[in-house]
UniProtKB/TrEMBL annotation:
Keyword Cytoplasm: yes
Domain Beta-ketoacyl-[acyl-carrier-protein] synthase III N-terminal: 106-183
Pathway(s) this gene product operates in, as recorded in its UniProt entry: Lipid metabolism; fatty acid biosynthesis
Pfam families in the cross-refs: ACP_syn_III (PF08545), ACP_syn_III_C (PF08541)
Annotated segments matching region ACP-binding: 250-254
Annotated ranges, domain Beta-ketoacyl-[acyl-carrier-protein] synthase III C-terminal: 233-322
The reaction(s) this protein catalyses: malonyl-[ACP] + acetyl-CoA + H(+) = 3-oxobutanoyl-[ACP] + CO2 + CoA
Role according to the record: Catalyzes the condensation reaction of fatty acid synthesis by the addition to an acyl acceptor of two carbons from malonyl-ACP. Catalyzes the first condensation reaction which initiates fatty acid synthesis and may therefore play a role in governing the total rate of fatty acid production. Possesses both acetoacetyl-ACP synthase and acetyl transacylase activities. Its substrate specificity determines the biosynthesis of branched-chain and/or straight-chain of fatty acids.
Subcellular location(s) per record: Cytoplasm
Protein name: Beta-ketoacyl-[acyl-carrier-protein] synthase III
HAMAP family (alphabetical): FabH
Keyword Acyltransferase assigned: yes
Annotated family: Belongs to the thiolase-like superfamily. FabH family.
Organism per entry: Brachyspira catarrhinii
Amino acid sequence: MKRAYIKNIAYYVPEKILDNKYFESILDTNNEWIVTRTGIETRRMAREDETIFEMGLNAVKNLQNKGVDLSDIDTIIVPTVTKDYIFPSMAGQIQKALGLKHCFALDFSAACSGYVYALNTITALIESGQSKNVLMLCSEKLTKDINWKDRGTAILFGDAATASLITGREDGRGVLAMDMQSEPDLTIVLNGGSACPIRAEDCDGADFKIYMEGGETFKRAVTEFSNSIDRVLAKAGKSLSDVKFFVPHQANLRIIQAVAKRIGLPMEKVSVTLNKFGNSSSTSIGLALNDALEKNKIKDGDLVLFTGFGGGFTWGSTLMIW
Ligand code: COA
Protein backbone atom coordinates (compact mmCIF):
# COMPACT_ATOMS: atom_id res chain seq x y z
CA MET A 1 0.00 0.00 0.00
CA LYS A 2 1.21 3.46 -0.90
CA ARG A 3 1.78 5.78 2.04
CA ALA A 4 2.49 9.52 2.01
CA TYR A 5 5.87 10.56 3.34
CA ILE A 6 7.62 13.90 3.99
CA LYS A 7 10.66 13.44 1.79
CA ASN A 8 12.29 16.79 2.47
CA ILE A 9 11.61 20.14 4.07
CA ALA A 10 13.14 23.62 4.09
CA TYR A 11 12.19 26.97 5.54
CA TYR A 12 12.64 30.69 5.28
CA VAL A 13 12.25 33.35 7.95
CA PRO A 14 12.50 37.12 7.47
CA GLU A 15 15.67 38.80 8.75
CA LYS A 16 14.10 41.15 11.29
CA ILE A 17 13.99 39.76 14.83
CA LEU A 18 11.54 41.18 17.36
CA ASP A 19 12.63 40.38 20.92
CA ASN A 20 10.59 40.74 24.09
CA LYS A 21 12.40 43.99 24.94
CA TYR A 22 10.73 45.52 21.89
CA PHE A 23 7.31 44.73 23.39
CA GLU A 24 8.41 46.20 26.73
CA SER A 25 8.96 49.43 24.82
CA ILE A 26 5.46 49.57 23.26
CA LEU A 27 3.19 47.70 25.72
CA ASP A 28 2.63 47.19 29.45
CA THR A 29 4.45 43.86 29.48
CA ASN A 30 7.83 42.42 30.36
CA ASN A 31 10.24 39.73 29.24
CA GLU A 32 9.64 37.57 32.31
CA TRP A 33 5.84 37.47 31.82
CA ILE A 34 6.18 36.62 28.14
CA VAL A 35 8.78 33.88 28.70
CA THR A 36 7.06 32.25 31.67
CA ARG A 37 3.49 32.45 30.26
CA THR A 38 4.31 31.57 26.63
CA GLY A 39 7.93 30.38 26.22
CA ILE A 40 8.48 32.92 23.41
CA GLU A 41 11.74 34.90 23.36
CA THR A 42 11.89 36.21 19.78
CA ARG A 43 9.83 36.10 16.59
CA ARG A 44 10.50 37.20 12.98
CA MET A 45 8.83 40.09 11.20
CA ALA A 46 8.58 40.42 7.42
CA ARG A 47 9.43 43.70 5.67
CA GLU A 48 6.40 45.84 4.92
CA ASP A 49 6.71 45.06 1.20
CA GLU A 50 7.53 41.36 1.72
CA THR A 51 4.65 39.18 0.50
CA ILE A 52 3.82 35.61 1.47
CA PHE A 53 4.63 34.75 -2.15
CA GLU A 54 8.17 36.10 -1.75
CA MET A 55 8.64 34.30 1.58
CA GLY A 56 7.18 31.09 0.17
CA LEU A 57 9.38 31.24 -2.90
CA ASN A 58 12.43 31.70 -0.66
CA ALA A 59 11.45 28.53 1.22
CA VAL A 60 11.07 26.73 -2.14
CA LYS A 61 14.52 27.94 -3.23
CA ASN A 62 15.97 26.66 0.05
CA LEU A 63 14.39 23.28 -0.72
CA GLN A 64 15.98 23.34 -4.19
CA ASN A 65 19.30 24.33 -2.57
CA LYS A 66 19.13 21.01 -0.73
CA GLY A 67 19.25 19.33 -4.15
CA VAL A 68 15.52 18.69 -4.43
CA ASP A 69 14.22 18.56 -8.02
CA LEU A 70 10.73 20.07 -8.23
CA SER A 71 10.17 19.54 -11.98
CA ASP A 72 7.82 16.58 -11.45
CA ILE A 73 5.58 18.27 -8.88
CA ASP A 74 1.95 17.52 -9.86
CA THR A 75 0.21 19.18 -6.91
CA ILE A 76 0.81 22.35 -4.89
CA ILE A 77 -1.14 22.85 -1.69
CA VAL A 78 -0.87 26.07 0.33
CA PRO A 79 -2.66 26.22 3.67
CA THR A 80 -2.38 29.89 4.59
CA VAL A 81 -4.39 32.28 6.67
CA THR A 82 -2.59 35.40 5.38
CA LYS A 83 -3.23 35.71 1.65
CA ASP A 84 -1.59 38.21 -0.73
CA TYR A 85 -4.63 38.12 -3.05
CA ILE A 86 -8.17 36.72 -2.88
CA PHE A 87 -7.19 35.24 -6.26
CA PRO A 88 -4.98 34.16 -7.96
CA SER A 89 -4.11 31.60 -5.34
CA MET A 90 -0.68 31.56 -3.74
CA ALA A 91 -0.34 27.94 -4.93
CA GLY A 92 -1.07 29.07 -8.52
CA GLN A 93 1.55 31.82 -8.29
CA ILE A 94 4.12 29.30 -7.12
CA GLN A 95 3.12 26.93 -9.95
CA LYS A 96 3.75 29.76 -12.41
CA ALA A 97 7.07 30.71 -10.78
CA LEU A 98 8.23 27.09 -11.05
CA GLY A 99 7.00 26.82 -14.64
CA LEU A 100 4.96 23.70 -13.91
CA LYS A 101 2.42 22.84 -16.61
CA HIS A 102 0.83 19.57 -15.47
CA CYS A 103 -0.02 20.45 -11.95
CA PHE A 104 -2.99 21.51 -9.87
CA ALA A 105 -2.70 24.23 -7.28
CA LEU A 106 -4.93 24.90 -4.29
CA ASP A 107 -4.99 27.27 -1.32
CA PHE A 108 -7.06 26.74 1.80
CA SER A 109 -7.10 27.97 5.33
CA ALA A 110 -7.30 25.99 8.54
CA ALA A 111 -5.39 28.58 10.60
CA CYS A 112 -2.75 27.01 12.85
CA SER A 113 -3.91 23.48 11.94
CA GLY A 114 -2.90 24.20 8.34
CA TYR A 115 0.17 21.96 8.28
CA VAL A 116 -1.70 18.91 9.60
CA TYR A 117 -4.84 19.55 7.50
CA ALA A 118 -2.66 19.87 4.39
CA LEU A 119 -0.56 16.81 5.23
CA ASN A 120 -3.71 14.74 5.75
CA THR A 121 -5.36 16.03 2.55
CA ILE A 122 -2.18 15.29 0.59
CA THR A 123 -2.06 11.81 2.13
CA ALA A 124 -5.54 11.12 0.74
CA LEU A 125 -4.51 12.49 -2.69
CA ILE A 126 -1.41 10.27 -2.74
CA GLU A 127 -3.18 7.15 -1.47
CA SER A 128 -5.93 7.58 -4.10
CA GLY A 129 -3.38 7.92 -6.91
CA GLN A 130 -4.48 11.47 -7.80
CA SER A 131 -1.11 12.96 -6.84
CA LYS A 132 2.43 11.61 -6.84
CA ASN A 133 4.73 14.49 -5.95
CA VAL A 134 3.28 17.23 -3.84
CA LEU A 135 4.73 20.55 -2.76
CA MET A 136 3.16 21.75 0.47
CA LEU A 137 3.98 25.37 1.01
CA CYS A 138 3.12 27.23 4.20
CA SER A 139 3.74 30.97 4.25
CA GLU A 140 2.36 33.38 6.81
CA LYS A 141 2.71 37.11 7.39
CA LEU A 142 0.81 37.39 10.65
CA THR A 143 2.53 40.61 11.72
CA LYS A 144 0.37 42.51 9.20
CA ASP A 145 -2.71 41.43 11.19
CA ILE A 146 -1.41 42.09 14.69
CA ASN A 147 -3.16 44.54 16.99
CA TRP A 148 -0.03 46.19 18.38
CA LYS A 149 -2.03 47.65 21.28
CA ASP A 150 -3.20 44.23 22.56
CA ARG A 151 -0.58 42.71 24.86
CA GLY A 152 -2.49 39.41 24.97
CA THR A 153 -1.94 38.70 21.26
CA ALA A 154 0.77 41.04 19.87
CA ILE A 155 3.57 39.14 21.62
CA LEU A 156 2.56 35.76 20.21
CA PHE A 157 2.85 35.82 16.43
CA GLY A 158 5.65 35.81 13.85
CA ASP A 159 6.23 35.43 10.09
CA ALA A 160 7.78 32.43 8.31
CA ALA A 161 7.50 30.01 5.39
CA THR A 162 8.13 26.28 5.01
CA ALA A 163 8.28 24.10 1.90
CA SER A 164 7.70 20.36 2.25
CA LEU A 165 8.03 17.75 -0.50
CA ILE A 166 5.57 14.91 0.03
CA THR A 167 5.62 11.73 -2.03
CA GLY A 168 4.41 8.14 -1.76
CA ARG A 169 6.36 5.03 -0.74
CA GLU A 170 5.46 1.36 -0.43
CA ASP A 171 7.88 0.04 2.21
CA GLY A 172 5.54 0.47 5.17
CA ARG A 173 6.87 3.86 6.19
CA GLY A 174 4.79 7.05 5.91
CA VAL A 175 1.43 8.21 7.21
CA LEU A 176 -0.37 5.52 9.24
CA ALA A 177 -3.42 7.44 10.41
CA MET A 178 -4.95 10.90 10.43
CA ASP A 179 -7.52 12.84 12.40
CA MET A 180 -9.21 16.17 11.64
CA GLN A 181 -12.05 18.04 13.27
CA SER A 182 -13.35 21.58 13.38
CA GLU A 183 -16.01 23.52 15.17
CA PRO A 184 -17.26 27.04 14.43
CA ASP A 185 -16.12 29.38 17.17
CA LEU A 186 -15.44 33.10 17.39
CA THR A 187 -12.90 32.93 20.21
CA ILE A 188 -10.20 33.76 17.66
CA VAL A 189 -11.31 36.02 14.81
CA LEU A 190 -9.73 37.88 11.91
CA ASN A 191 -12.29 40.05 10.08
CA GLY A 192 -12.03 41.35 6.52
CA GLY A 193 -14.14 38.72 4.73
CA SER A 194 -17.62 39.30 3.31
CA ALA A 195 -19.29 39.16 6.75
CA CYS A 196 -17.26 42.14 7.88
CA PRO A 197 -15.52 43.64 4.86
CA ILE A 198 -12.58 45.93 5.41
CA ARG A 199 -12.87 49.56 4.27
CA ALA A 200 -9.93 51.92 3.75
CA GLU A 201 -10.68 53.82 6.98
CA ASP A 202 -10.81 50.56 8.97
CA CYS A 203 -7.38 49.31 7.98
CA ASP A 204 -5.77 50.02 11.35
CA GLY A 205 -8.91 49.37 13.41
CA ALA A 206 -8.82 46.74 16.17
CA ASP A 207 -11.81 44.93 14.59
CA PHE A 208 -9.62 44.07 11.60
CA LYS A 209 -6.70 42.70 13.57
CA ILE A 210 -6.29 39.33 15.28
CA TYR A 211 -8.63 39.03 18.25
CA MET A 212 -8.31 36.10 20.68
CA GLU A 213 -9.78 35.11 24.03
CA GLY A 214 -6.51 33.54 25.14
CA GLY A 215 -7.66 31.68 28.25
CA GLU A 216 -10.60 29.95 26.53
CA THR A 217 -8.45 29.10 23.51
CA PHE A 218 -5.74 27.71 25.76
CA LYS A 219 -8.14 25.34 27.58
CA ARG A 220 -9.73 24.20 24.33
CA ALA A 221 -6.32 23.63 22.75
CA VAL A 222 -5.14 21.33 25.56
CA THR A 223 -8.43 19.37 25.45
CA GLU A 224 -8.57 18.95 21.67
CA PHE A 225 -4.85 18.21 21.33
CA SER A 226 -5.39 15.29 23.70
CA ASN A 227 -8.65 14.11 22.09
CA SER A 228 -7.15 14.22 18.60
CA ILE A 229 -4.08 12.28 19.73
CA ASP A 230 -6.29 9.60 21.29
CA ARG A 231 -8.30 9.25 18.06
CA VAL A 232 -5.32 9.08 15.70
CA LEU A 233 -3.60 6.48 17.89
CA ALA A 234 -6.80 4.40 18.06
CA LYS A 235 -7.14 4.52 14.24
CA ALA A 236 -3.59 3.19 13.87
CA GLY A 237 -3.94 0.60 16.65
CA LYS A 238 -1.09 2.28 18.56
CA SER A 239 -0.76 3.53 22.11
CA LEU A 240 0.83 6.60 23.70
CA SER A 241 3.94 4.60 24.62
CA ASP A 242 4.56 3.81 20.91
CA VAL A 243 5.09 7.52 20.06
CA LYS A 244 8.80 8.25 19.72
CA PHE A 245 8.72 11.92 18.73
CA PHE A 246 6.14 14.70 18.94
CA VAL A 247 5.95 17.70 16.59
CA PRO A 248 3.19 19.98 17.92
CA HIS A 249 1.85 23.33 16.80
CA GLN A 250 3.84 26.08 18.49
CA ALA A 251 1.30 28.31 20.26
CA ASN A 252 2.36 28.20 23.91
CA LEU A 253 5.07 26.19 25.69
CA ARG A 254 2.68 25.44 28.57
CA ILE A 255 0.23 23.77 26.14
CA ILE A 256 3.07 21.69 24.64
CA GLN A 257 4.40 20.68 28.08
CA ALA A 258 0.92 19.69 29.31
CA VAL A 259 0.30 17.51 26.26
CA ALA A 260 3.82 15.98 26.33
CA LYS A 261 3.30 15.05 29.97
CA ARG A 262 0.04 13.35 29.07
CA ILE A 263 1.71 11.40 26.25
CA GLY A 264 4.50 10.52 28.68
CA LEU A 265 7.26 11.89 26.44
CA PRO A 266 10.25 13.75 27.93
CA MET A 267 10.72 17.22 26.40
CA GLU A 268 13.86 16.01 24.52
CA LYS A 269 11.42 14.01 22.36
CA VAL A 270 9.27 17.06 21.61
CA SER A 271 10.24 19.72 19.10
CA VAL A 272 10.03 23.30 20.37
CA THR A 273 10.86 26.29 18.16
CA LEU A 274 8.38 28.85 19.51
CA ASN A 275 11.14 30.34 21.67
CA LYS A 276 12.78 31.56 18.42
CA PHE A 277 9.84 31.98 16.04
CA GLY A 278 6.70 32.46 18.18
CA ASN A 279 3.44 31.22 16.70
CA SER A 280 3.66 31.41 12.90
CA SER A 281 0.36 29.59 12.23
CA SER A 282 0.53 26.94 9.48
CA THR A 283 4.33 27.17 9.29
CA SER A 284 4.92 26.31 12.96
CA ILE A 285 4.84 22.52 12.63
CA GLY A 286 7.14 22.65 9.60
CA LEU A 287 9.65 24.84 11.45
CA ALA A 288 9.55 22.44 14.39
CA LEU A 289 9.98 19.39 12.13
CA ASN A 290 12.87 20.98 10.25
CA ASP A 291 14.62 21.82 13.53
CA ALA A 292 14.21 18.27 14.86
CA LEU A 293 15.62 16.83 11.63
CA GLU A 294 18.59 19.24 11.61
CA LYS A 295 19.37 18.13 15.17
CA ASN A 296 19.01 14.42 14.24
CA LYS A 297 16.32 13.97 16.84
CA ILE A 298 14.12 11.79 14.59
CA LYS A 299 15.40 8.34 13.58
CA ASP A 300 14.22 6.20 10.65
CA GLY A 301 11.36 4.00 11.82
CA ASP A 302 10.32 6.32 14.68
CA LEU A 303 6.59 6.77 15.15
CA VAL A 304 6.19 10.54 14.83
CA LEU A 305 3.08 12.40 15.97
CA PHE A 306 2.07 15.77 14.50
CA THR A 307 -0.76 17.70 16.17
CA GLY A 308 -2.17 21.12 15.36
CA PHE A 309 -4.80 23.39 16.86
CA GLY A 310 -5.98 26.65 15.36
CA GLY A 311 -8.56 29.40 15.14
CA GLY A 312 -11.87 28.44 13.73
CA PHE A 313 -11.53 26.18 15.78
CA THR A 314 -9.64 23.51 13.87
CA TRP A 315 -7.56 20.64 15.13
CA GLY A 316 -6.02 17.45 13.87
CA SER A 317 -3.17 14.96 14.02
CA THR A 318 -1.07 12.83 11.73
CA LEU A 319 0.80 9.70 12.78
CA MET A 320 3.73 8.82 10.57
CA ILE A 321 6.43 6.15 10.57
CA TRP A 322 9.55 8.18 9.77
N1 COA B 1 2.12 40.89 29.55
C1 COA B 1 1.69 41.04 30.80
N2 COA B 1 0.47 40.68 31.21
C2 COA B 1 -0.34 40.15 30.28
C3 COA B 1 0.04 39.95 28.94
C4 COA B 1 1.34 40.35 28.59
N3 COA B 1 1.82 40.23 27.34
N4 COA B 1 -0.96 39.37 28.25
C5 COA B 1 -1.97 39.21 29.13
N5 COA B 1 -1.59 39.69 30.37
C6 COA B 1 -2.38 39.73 31.59
C7 COA B 1 -3.86 39.82 31.34
O1 COA B 1 -4.25 41.16 31.08
C8 COA B 1 -4.40 39.31 32.63
O2 COA B 1 -4.34 40.33 33.60
P1 COA B 1 -5.53 40.51 34.68
O3 COA B 1 -5.53 39.23 35.45
O4 COA B 1 -5.09 41.69 35.43
O5 COA B 1 -6.75 40.67 33.86
C9 COA B 1 -3.38 38.23 33.04
O6 COA B 1 -2.18 38.53 32.28
C10 COA B 1 -3.83 36.83 32.71
O7 COA B 1 -4.36 36.84 31.38
P2 COA B 1 -4.68 35.53 30.63
O8 COA B 1 -5.20 35.83 29.25
O9 COA B 1 -5.51 34.66 31.52
O10 COA B 1 -3.20 34.92 30.51
P3 COA B 1 -2.77 33.49 30.12
O11 COA B 1 -1.91 32.95 31.16
O12 COA B 1 -3.94 32.68 29.63
O13 COA B 1 -1.85 33.77 28.82
C11 COA B 1 -1.99 33.64 26.43
C12 COA B 1 -2.38 34.43 27.69
C13 COA B 1 -2.62 34.31 25.22
C14 COA B 1 -0.49 33.65 26.34
C15 COA B 1 -2.51 32.18 26.55
O14 COA B 1 -3.84 32.20 26.99
C16 COA B 1 -2.42 31.40 25.29
O15 COA B 1 -1.36 31.05 24.84
N6 COA B 1 -3.60 31.01 24.73
C17 COA B 1 -3.74 30.01 23.72
C18 COA B 1 -3.13 30.32 22.40
C19 COA B 1 -3.44 29.21 21.44
O16 COA B 1 -3.57 28.06 21.76
N7 COA B 1 -3.55 29.53 20.20
C20 COA B 1 -3.81 28.49 19.23
C21 COA B 1 -4.42 29.01 18.04
S1 COA B 1 -3.56 30.41 17.42
